[in-house]
Amino acid sequence: MTEIAFHVNAPDKLDYACRLLRATQKKSAQVLVLGHIGALKSLSSKLWAMAPTEFLPHCLADAAAEVIAHSPIVFIAELGAKLPSSAAKSQVLLNLGAVLPAGFERFERLIELVGQDESDLQAARTRWKHYKDRGYALSRYDVVSKTQTAH
After folding, report:
1. Does residue 138 contact residue 131 with C-beta atoms inside 8 Å?
2. CATH number of the structural domain spanning residue 12
3. Is the model's pLDDT at 82 over the cut of 60?
4. Can you say whether the dihedral through the CA atoms of 50, 24, 121, 41 is positive or negative?
5. Other CB atoms closer than 10 Å to residue 68's CB: what's the count?
6. pLDDT score recorded for residue 80
7. In which domain, by residue range, is 16 found?
8. Number of separate domains in the chain
9. What pairs with residue 113 in β-bridges?
10. The model's pTM
């Protein structure tokens, strides 16, 4: 069963996403990042601005198959549709968006990244309820207070 963790209260979701992606890469995990195309482009810019020794290779899900095959991080714009077959190798799904990711159950881990604005928090509450109602064990990590709780 997919392990689901909510990282909440992130003052800057994209900066925090960079740190999460760095941590997943240290574990050699394949990651699919789901979000609004504008957020994904901004995240890509942040990743390109990192020091050369910290750069994280990444691409969009509509890139050529050989590029996706060699990219440990693949970005997909939230469309509400099923995740692409190119995501089959991914072990971690990082959701930056407000939608419930269709097909999330095929991942080992799902990380829901939640900011501080009310609309983001409300959408996260809806997703939390969806997962909880289906019997998933959930954990919550408060980014600001650095506390973790299991539910």
Report:
1. yes
2. 3.40.50.10110
3. no
4. positive
5. 17
6. 52
7. 3-150
8. 1
9. 7
10. 0.91
